[in-house]
Amino acid sequence: MFTMAPDISSTETEYGTVLLDKKSGKYWNLNPTGTLIWQSILGSGDLNDAVNALVDTYDVDRTTASRDAQSVIDGLVDAGIIVEEI
Q1: DSSP state of 5
Q2: Alpha-carbon gap, residue 57 to 84, rounded angstroms
Q3: Mean of per-residue pLDDT scores for the chain
Q4: Contact 2, 85 (CB under 8 A)
Q5: Do the Cβ atoms of 42 and 50 come closer than 8 Å?
Q6: Helix (H) or strand (E) holding 3
Q7: Who contacts 66 (Cβ-Cβ below 8 Å, separation ≥6)?
Q8: CA–CA distances in Å: residue 46 to residues 13, 15, 23, 41, 57
Q9: CB 73 within 8 A of CB 47
Q10: Is it the case that residue 2 has pLDDT exceeding 90?
Q11: Distance separating alpha carbons of residues 37 and 72, to the nearest angstrom
């Protein structure tokens, strides 16, 4: 299960989502696909929900959707934007 790190704030824009680390001052921009993954992960904390959202929204197979969702999530974890609860 994934949750947003405590020092992160997010704002949706017409272009996707802007994420700000209030502690470091760093920010990131997510495109609409990244935003869909972000919203899915925050909604349920589950990778499979993000994959399902990609498959339902875009013309993409599950293997590609799974790889892409995992890549975005890995990047968010590496940046300290989301944390995995064990």
Answers
A1: -
A2: 25
A3: 94
A4: yes
A5: no
A6: strand 2-4
A7: 47, 51
A8: 24, 24, 26, 6, 17
A9: yes
A10: no
A11: 8
Residues 6+ apart with CB under 8 A from 43: 49
Q: Report d(CA 70, CA 50) in Å as an integer.
A: 9
CA-based nearest residue to 77, from 32, 14, 28: 28
Q: What is the DSSP letter of 41?
A: H
The domains found in the chain, sorted by start residue, are 2-84 (3.90.930)
Q: How far apart are CA 47 and CA 23, in angstroms?
A: 27
pLDDT in tens, 17-48: 999 999 999 999 999 999 999 999 998 878 99
